[in-house]
Design brief:
Chains: A alpha+beta, B mainly alpha, C alpha/beta
Structural class of chain B: mainly alpha
Order of helices and strands of chain B: HHHHEE
CATH topology of the domain at 4-49 in chain B: Histone, subunit A
Strand content of chain A: 15-25%
Strand order of the largest sheet of chain B: 1-2
Shape of chain A: elongated
Number of domains of chain A: 3
Number of strands of chain B: 2
CATH class of the domain at 4-49 in chain B: Mainly Alpha
Distance between the termini of chain B: 50 Å
Helix content of chain B: 25-40%
Oligomer: heterotrimer
CATH architecture of the domain at 4-49 in chain B: Orthogonal Bundle
Number of strands of chain A: 17
Number of helices of chain A: 15
Number of helices of chain B: 4
Amino acid sequence: MNEYEPVIGLETHIQLKTESKIFCGCRADSWFDPPNSNICPVCTGLPGVLPAINERAVEQAMLLALAMSVDELQPVSYFARKNYFYPDLPKGYQISQYDEPLARGGLMVLPLADGASLKVRIAKLHLEEDAGKTVHQTDQRLIDFNRCGVPLVEMVTEPDLRSADEAATYLIRLRQLLRWLDVSDADMERGQLRCDANVSIRPVGSDQLNTKTEIKNVNSIEAVRQAIETEIARQVTVVESGGQVEPWTLDWDEDSGTLRKMRSKETEADYRYFREPDLLPLHIDEAWLARIKQQLPELPLARRARFIEAYGLPAYDAEILTEERSLADFFEATVAAGGHDVKVVSNWLMNDVLRLIREKGVSAGGLQLRPEHLSEILAMLADEQINMTTAKELVERTEESGESPRQVVEREGLGQVSDRDSLVKLARRTLEASPEQVADYRGGKQTLIGWFVGQLMRQTGGKANPQLARQVLEELLAE
Amino acid sequence: MPNPADGPITAEVFAHLVRLAQFELTEQERDYLRSELNGQLKAIRQLEAMEIGDELPITSHGVPYGPAIRPPIRQDEITGSPLADEILEGAPQVQDRYLVVPDIPHEELK
Amino acid sequence: MSLADRPGHEVAAEVRRGSLKAVEVVEAAFKRIEQVDGRRPALGAEPQPDDQQFIHAFLLADRQRALAAAAAIDQKVAAGEDPGPLAGLPLAVKDIFCVRGTPSTAASRILANFVAPYSATPVERLEAAGAVVIGKVNLDEFTFGSSNESTAFLPPPGNPWRPTHVPGGSSGGSAAAVAAGESALSLATDTAGSIRQPAAFCGVVGLKPTYGRVSRYGLIAFASSLDCPGPAARNVTDVALALQAMAGRDPRDATTAAAPVPDYSERLEAGVAGMRIGLSSDYFRIVAPPVGGGEIETRPIDPDIEATIRQAAERLAQAGAVIVEDVPLSNTHLAIPAYFVISRVEAASNLHRYDGVKYGHRTADPVADLHQLYRKSRGEGFGTQVKLRILMGMYVSAEQYEMAYYEKALRVRTLIRRDFEEVFNPAGDYRLDALLTPTTPTTAFPLGAVYGDSVVMQYADALTVPANHAGIPGVSVPAGLSADGLPIGLQLLGADFSEATLLRIGRTWEQISADDAWRSQRPMVLAEVGP
C-alpha cells in the first residue's frame, strides 16, 4: 500500500436554505410532508410552464462562492439544460449551469491534524435544481416530486485529496462553513449535503491521473471515509494482482459496509447541453456584488486563528469555540462585556454552555441564556459573591427563565455566605450534631473534613463559601 | 424520393438517435424519417459550409434584454399552489400519493 | 350583417354599452360553427366524402361554458360595471394553450387526455378584458408545420376560401375560424410564421408581437426562444385591442420584457404621412429546393403576390409614405437553415417531458421496464412530423456535431438580427419605420400537395421566420386575392416593440383599400350562409 497514493476528488451537492424553490414559489423544505403535496405545475413539469429564478438562491450561491475565494464571480452567467430521461426528473431535463457558470476556480484551505494545511482547489461552483425522490418497491418505482426544484449548489473539487481522512476533513470543514454562512443546514442524513467521491490510485511520485471509480450513495461523513478506504484497498488489490481498474460507478451499502458495482448508466452520457432559453442571462452588477461582499462574515478558520492570536487561547479551545458561529459570537460578546479572564470564559463555554446547547438541541444563539447573563454570573463568581455551585445552578435557571442572574441572586438571597461569624456559628452547630465524626477526625481520620464541609454546605443551602467553610471547620476541629 | 441511405444519417446513426429519443417506430416511419433527415441536412448544408468564427457572438434571444427592459428577479417568497391533488389526478398511475412506474432496467450486479 | 361577421370592436362596444347582449353574440358564433365547421375532428378518424365542404377548425366548442361566461358579462353590464374592452367577443384558443378544465392537447395523441389545471396568462388576460372562450381550435401537432395537416385530430382544418386547400399552419384552425366568422378573435402562436402565414392564406389579420411582449406561461412549448403568442382577427383594430389586453410583463415568464405597454389604439388612425417604408428584393425571392426535391435554387415568389405588394406600396406612397426601395437584408436566405437547427434543438428538449409518467398518454401494452414504457408511450403518442423534429434536434445538438450546427446557427441568428437593426436604425442609411414584404411566397396550396416533404413545407415560412430569429414584431394583413381567388397577405415588419407603428400602417392600408373589389368577396364556405 505504501507504493500507491490515492487521488480523490469530491463532488458535493448542497441544498440551499431558501424559503421557496429555485424556480417556483413552492416551499423549499418538505422533509416532513406527505408525498407529492408540496408541488405545483412548474416543479412537476406540466405542459406550458416556465421557470422563474429565486433571488435568494443566487445570493446564497454568491456568498458561498466568495467564501471559497473563487477566482471570479461571473458578472454574466447562464443557465443550461442537461437533457436526460429519468423518472424523478419531470421535465426530462435539469436546469443547471454549464458553459458559463456562476463561478470558476476557488480554494479551500484545510487545517490538518499534524498542523499542516491542505489546499483543495475548487473546479466548479454552480446553481442547479434538485430532482425528486424515487423509492424502489419490488418491480416498481414510486416517485415523489416534493423535492423537485429545491435549489442546489454543485461544487466539484480538483482531485487534490490524498486520503480518506483528508476527504472527511474536507467535508467536515465544508459542512461547518455552510452552516456558518447560513446558506445550508448541511445535514447529510437529510440529504442537504450530498457527496460523490471519485477515487483512483497511482504510484507514489507519479503525477498521472489514472482511471477513477465513482462512489455514490454515502449518507454520512464517516461513511464517506469508510467507503473511500474500502475502495482504495480494492484498487490496490486489483492493480497488484495485475488487473486494471475499470471506471465503475459504485454504490455504498451502509448496512454491510461494502461497495457494489452499480448498474451502468441507464441513459447515454450525451446530455446535449444548451443554454436555457426560458431564462435570461444572470447579471450580477457591481452594486449587487458589493452588497453580498458586505454580508460575508469572518470565516471559521480565520476566526479560529484570531482567537488563538488575539485572545491567546489554546488551539483546542479555539477549535471548539469556532465550530459554530453563534457560539463564537457568544464567546466574544461575553468577553466584551468586560472584566473576565478569557480562559475562564472559554472553560465555561466549552463545558456548561456547550452541555446546555446539546441538551436543548439549539445553537448558542438559540439559548435563553445570553452572553450578558454569563458575564454577570462570572463577575459575581469572581467577586466571591456566589460560589461555584450557585454559579452553575444559575446557568441552568437563567436558561429556564431568561431572568437576569443578578436579580435572581438578590431576590432569593443566593449570595455566598462569606461572613466569618455566621459561618463559625453554623460550623459549631454542625460539629455538635455529629460527635462521632468529630471523634473520628480528632482520632486521625482527617479525610472527614470533606464530609464536614458537605454538611455545612447543606446547612447553608449550598451557599457557604467553601474555602472559608473548610478553614473555619479546621480551626474549630483543631481546638 | 432520394435514397434514405444518402447522407450522414446512416442506419446506425439513425438507430442511435431513436434510442436517445426514447420512442418506437414502425418500419414505414423508419424509412420516411431517415430519408427526411438526410434531406434536411442537405438543405442546411450551406449553413454547415459557412466559415463563422467566434468574433460573431451567439444570439440566444433575438431581442437584446438591455437593463431598461430586463424584468426584475423573483423574490424568495412562498406562494404555494392548491393544485397538488389535481396534478396527481392527471397522473396515469398513483399509489398512496406516489406516482408509479415500472422499474428501470439494469445490468446484473457484481 | 350577422353578428358573427361584424367587426369585433363595434360588437364589444355595444355589449359594453348594454345595447347588445354578450349571450346573443356568443349564440351567433355557435350558430356559425354549426353551419360551417362540420364534424369534430378526432384521433385517427377516417376521411369522409363531405369533409372538404366544411372547415373543421374546432377541436372543442364548449357552448355551456361560453354562455355562462357571456351571461356573467351581461350581469356585470346590468350592474353598472365595466366588463372590459373585449366584452362578449368570442375567442377561439389554439389548442397549444392550457385553459383550465379543458383538454389542452397540442393536437397530439400524447396529450389527448390531458385536462389543464391552470390557464395560460394570455387567456386569463383576454378573459379579464371580457373575451369569451368558445373553444379550442386545431393546429399542426405541437405547432410543427405550415399547413395544419400534421394534426392527430382528423380531418385537418380547411381553408374557408377553398376547403380543399390548406388554411396554413401551424395556427390553421385559428385563422380559419376567424375568417369564417366562427370567432371574432383567436389566440394563436407564431414560431416561424405560424400566425402570419395562415392569416395570409385565410385573408385575415395576424400579429406576431415582439418576443417577450406577451407571456408564454401556459403555452405548451415548442421552440422557447422563438415562440410568440399573438392575436388573429378580421381587422386591425380588433387585433390592437387584443394585443392591448395580453401585452406586458408576467412574473411567471422570466423572458417577458419590462418594456412599457403603449396604447395601441391611440394613433391607429393617424395615417402614414412621412413614414419610411422599405421594400427589399430579398423578400421577393426564396432560396429553397424546388417542390419534388433537388438542389437549392433561387426563384422568384408568385408574381401575383409580388405585384400585389408593389401596388400596395404605391398606394401607401400616395397616402404620404416614403417608399425606400432595394433595402438589403442579405442574410434572409439563411433563416430557414438556421431555423431547422435552433427550433429542433429546443423542441426535442421541450418534448422530453412527454413520457407517460406524469400526465398524458401512457401505453396500454404490458411493459417489461421503464424504458419500454417511455418508448411505447412516446412511439404511440407522437405523430411522425413530431418524431422527425425530435430526431433532428437530437442530431444537431449531439456533442460531436453541436459546434458545426447549433452554435453556428446561433451565430447566423446574429447576422439576421443585425440585418434588421441596420435597416431600422434611426441613425443609419435606411431609417425605416417598417419593412413591407409579402407574407408568403405562394397562396394556400391544396391539401396533400406538399405534406410529407418536410423540407419544402418548411420553406413556406421563408419570409416570416427571419422575424422570429430577430425577435422583432410582424403583422400580416389581407392585401388582395390572387387570380384564382385565394387570399394574399402583406407583411409589415418593424423594430422591437414597434407594434403600434405596424398596426397603424396596417389600419391605413385597410382604409385605403376599403372599397377594393376583392374586399366584397367572401370565403367559399360562407356562400350558403346568409348575410
